[in-house]
């Protein structure tokens, strides 16, 4: 097992299947965790992976594909070898692929077609001690009706440059709500390479030089849910088990694809501690610094300084599972608005921030309280916010799309009408405060197309949705939180 998941074993010692992966399934608006069978004694590994793992689901929530460094796998465990990404020389340095150096996105304007972009063309870097990427390669593919994959096009070279080791590429929605910006910093420098993915494909768009060096070693750089902030982190070893952590926040213009501000924070030197990620709550109001042994909260609008960062949680060295104590690594913001935090020791526990939109200790950090059915750790695949819509009022909202999250005005926290039944049949009903009845209401399909508009009062007698196709829809009532409805 050491060559699979660092010596991690099943919770059931009599089980002959080793599970080193977990599906987090929120399709029913509550968390269901499923173990991934990764290794059966004396059999081949079903899901061999190296560091650069990314994945994507379709609009029905079914797994479409994931990439393991050389192969594209579908949900039926069938693979397509992508020789353009891998050769025997690179296999000697699997760590050259780094963490989160690839991303999968829905191809703009074409249903069931996706594009995969990954760092490529490796050359040995004397400082890093491994080969590092100097180009990106893109592969477009289609999901067939049976869930199998078909390669449509391979673009071996997009743009030459010397790219970073970890967190090489990150995606964010364009202000038109359809296209994508992709951000790829140069290693050990001040320059961002910025790409655009539109209906014509992906291409290099422009470079931007910042005032200060871009942090080079981010495991999981992300954009905030509103698309306005981009984060990077870095940990430097100073010797004698002392580490220097730093974080950056950049303000991003989704219309122009430009960074307009940069904020830098250097944390006090500590023993054996990494700063792994900066992650945001759903409202893009609070951000959290995942610092190995503790979690710290800051607030957008306040100066990015140490005195404005509050510790809201820490690890417990006395709480252990089969693989030791739990270390706070990268996390993800889930559909239930909680933040789930992975570990660094490939164990069975995860920590949770239950109320990340609340200030200070009210955020409800729970250390290692979630027990997974399988062993997972370190990091996550690169996951952009697929639900971010067009930026209404922006000069770049040129496609005439409506944005459910902005046409309703400011979201009123906890003012959530009860929509039922959900999943729904021919009619959808609602219970709410009477004052909401006169508000405008819109229903959008998964692609963001408005399929109904009127007054929310219709929910009292029932909104006829029997003519709508089976799938996921979003109900937006003016001033209230947008809700997901499944049409059966």
CATH third-level topology of the largest domain: Methylamine Dehydrogenase, Chain H
Provide a count of the helices. 4
Task: Give me the oligomer status.
Answer: single chain
Number of strands: 35
How many domains, as an integer? 2
Helix content: under 10%
How confident overall, as mean pLDDT?
83
CATH architecture of the largest domain: 7 Propeller
Main beta sheet, described?
4 strands, antiparallel
Instruction: Compute the CA-based radius of gyration.
Output: 22 Å
CATH class membership of the largest domain? Mainly Beta
What distance lies between the first and last C-alpha atoms, to the nearest angstrom? 43 Å
What strand order characterises the main sheet? 3-4-5-6
TL;DR?
The protein is mainly beta. 3% of the residues lie in helices and 44% in strands. The chain folds into two domains: 2-376, 7 Propeller (Methylamine Dehydrogenase, Chain H), CATH 2.130.10; 404-487, Immunoglobulin-like, CATH 2.60.40.
Characterise the protein shown here:
Helices cover 3% and strands 44% of the residues. The chain has four helices and 35 strands. Strand 1 (17-25) and strand 2 (32-40) form a beta hairpin. It is mainly β. The strands form ten sheets. The chain has a four-stranded antiparallel beta sheet with strand order 3-4-5-6, with no helix packed on it. The longest helix is centred in the first third of the chain and has 4 residues, at 2-5. It has two domains: 2-376, Methylamine Dehydrogenase, Chain H (7 Propeller); 404-487, Immunoglobulin-like.
């Amino acid at each position: 097992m050491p060559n699979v998941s660092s010596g991690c074993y099943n919770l059931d010692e009599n089980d002959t299947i080793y599970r080193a992966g977990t599906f987090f399934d929120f399709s029913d608006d509550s968390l269901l965790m499923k173990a991934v069978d990764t290794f059966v004694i004396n059999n081949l590994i079903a899901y061999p992976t190296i560091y650069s793992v990314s994945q994507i689901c379709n609009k029905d929530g079914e797994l479409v594909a994931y990439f393991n460094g050389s192969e594209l796998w579908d949900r039926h465990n069938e693979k397509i070898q992508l020789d353009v990404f891998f050769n025997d020389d690179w296999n000697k340095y699997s760590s050259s692929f780094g963490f989160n150096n690839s991303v999968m996105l829905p191809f703009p304007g074409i249903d069931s077609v996706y594009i995969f972009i990954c760092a490529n063309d490796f050359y040995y870097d004397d400082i890093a001690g491994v080969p590092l990427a100097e180009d990106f390669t893109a592969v477009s593919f289609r999901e067939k009706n049976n869930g199998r994959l078909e390669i449509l096009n391979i673009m071996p070279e997009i743009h030459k440059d010397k790219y970073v080791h970890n967190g090489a590429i990150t995606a964010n929605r364009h202000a038109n709500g359809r296209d994508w910006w992709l951000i790829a910093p140069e290693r050990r420098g001040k320059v961002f390479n910025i790409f655009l993915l539109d209906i014509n494909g992906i291409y290099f768009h422009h470079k931007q030089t910042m005032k200060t060096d871009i942090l080079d070693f981010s495991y999981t750089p992300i954009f905030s849910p509103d698309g306005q902030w981009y984060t990077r982190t870095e940990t430097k070893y100073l010797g004698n088990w002392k580490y220097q952590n730093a974080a950056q926040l950049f303000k991003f213009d989704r219309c122009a694809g430009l960074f307009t501000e940069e904020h830098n924070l250097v944390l006090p030197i500590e023993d054996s501690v990494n700063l792994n990620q900066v992650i945001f709550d759903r409202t893009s109001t609070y951000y959290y610094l995942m610092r190995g042994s503790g979690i710290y909260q800051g607030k957008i609008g306040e100066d990015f300084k140490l005195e404005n960062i509050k510790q809201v949680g820490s690890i417990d060295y006395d709480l252990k599972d089969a693989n030791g104590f739990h270390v706070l690594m990268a996390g993800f913001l889930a559909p239930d608005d909680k933040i789930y935090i992975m570990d660094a020791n490939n164990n069975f526990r995860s920590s949770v921030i239950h109320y990340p939109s609340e200030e200070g200790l009210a955020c409800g950090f729970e250390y290692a309280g979630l027990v997974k059915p399988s062993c997972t750790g370190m990091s996550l695949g690169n996951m952009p916010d697929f639900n971010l819509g067009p930026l209404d009022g922006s000069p770049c909202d040129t496609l005439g799309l409506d944005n459910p999250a902005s046409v309703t005005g400011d979201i009123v926290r906890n003012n959530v009408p009860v929509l039922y039944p959900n999943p729904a049949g021919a009619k959808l009903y609602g219970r709410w405060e009477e004052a909401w009845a006169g508000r405008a209401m819109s229903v959008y399909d998964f692609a963001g197309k408005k399929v109904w508009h009127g007054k929310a009062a219709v929910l009292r007698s029932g909104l006829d949705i029997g003519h709508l196709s089976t799938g996921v829809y979003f109900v937006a009532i003016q001033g209230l939180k947008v809700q997901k409805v499944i049409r059966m």
